[in-house]
Q: What sequence folds into this?
């Protein structure tokens, strides 16, 4: 159970960081349009 919780938390953190990085790249592309 503990290992699954750690894996789940780590996965959420990596997913959050990935989405945040993707969001920043997306906004940068929108800025380049202007």
A:
């Amino acid at each position: 159970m503990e290992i699954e919780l750690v894996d789940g938390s780590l996965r959420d953190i990596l997913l959050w960081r990935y989405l945040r990085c993707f969001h920043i790249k997306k906004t940068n592309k929108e800025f380049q349009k202007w």
Summary: The CA atoms of residues 9 and 28 lie 28 Å apart. The two ends are 50 Å apart (CA to CA). The chain has a mean pLDDT of 77. Helices lie at 2-33.
